[in-house]
Write a structure and sequence with these properties.
InterPro entries: Homeodomain-like_sf, HTH-type_TetR-like_transc_reg, HTH_TetR, Tet_transcr_reg_TetR-rel_C_sf, TetR_C. This protein is 67% helix and 0% strand. The radius of gyration is 21 Å and the shape is elongated.
């Protein structure tokens, strides 16, 4: 006698709560972005893939944009885990290369889709900008802090706006040129823009 087929109804499975449920939903969102892209991503599709209820998604993320932002930034490495190459140039190349690889994957698809979706809303546009700038700034702050500790640059060189320059150049190229960011471009940004910038004090650079 043939065995009865196993049910796949998520309601029959052990219920997940808290961090486990959130992690499953964010992971499912990233997978949906990889396979379907931002435009085709739906809350229903994410819920089905995560074997969760739509209600559990909407309780935490009222909109698709908010869910996608959290999902994308859940896969970005912690700034404290960035490799230490022993020099500022190597660290800057490492940071910008990581950003370039992220933009070439689901994070890039999400960023393009989010920009188009939230552009009419200044409030939501501000949320996307805060997410994007915040993580990039943290990575730059980490590698420049190391450089100060090694004596490569002066603490006075770490003006807040300078922390955004490298990441902003990458995002600008990605959004407006629609092509992968090459290793050569990363090195050009580091050698021609960031290293001269961080080796100049704010007072001197303004004169």
């Amino acid at each position: 006698m043939a065995a009865e087929p196993q049910t796949t109804d998520h309601r029959k499975r052990p219920r997940r709560r808290g961090d486990a449920l959130i992690a499953a939903i964010l992971h499912a969102t990233v997978q949906e972005l990889e396979e379907r892209g931002y435009a085709a991503l739906t809350m229903e599709g994410v819920a089905e893939r995560a074997r969760a209820s739509k209600a559990s998604l909407y309780r935490r993320w009222p909109t698709r944009a908010e869910l996608v932002m959290d999902a994308v930034y859940s896969v970005i490495p912690d700034p404290g885990e960035l490799p230490d190459t022993g020099e500022l140039r190597g660290d800057l190349i490492s940071v910008l290369t990581r950003t370039a690889r992220l933009l070439d994957g689901p994070a890039g698809q999400a960023l393009r889709g989010l920009m188009a979706e939230v552009l009419p809303s200044p409030e939501r546009m501000g949320q996307v900008r805060a997410h994007a700038q915040g993580m990039g700034r943290q990575m730059m702050e980490e590698v420049t802090r190391r450089a100060v500790h090694r004596g490569e640059i002066s603490p006075e060189a770490l003006a807040p706006r300078r922390m955004e320059v490298g990441q902003a150049l990458l995002r600008n190229h990605f959004l407006f040129h629609h092509e992968p960011i090459s290793d050569e471009m990363v090195e050009e940004i580091v050698d021609e823009v960031l290293l001269p910038l961080f080796n100049t004090s704010p007072v001197n650079s303004a004169t």
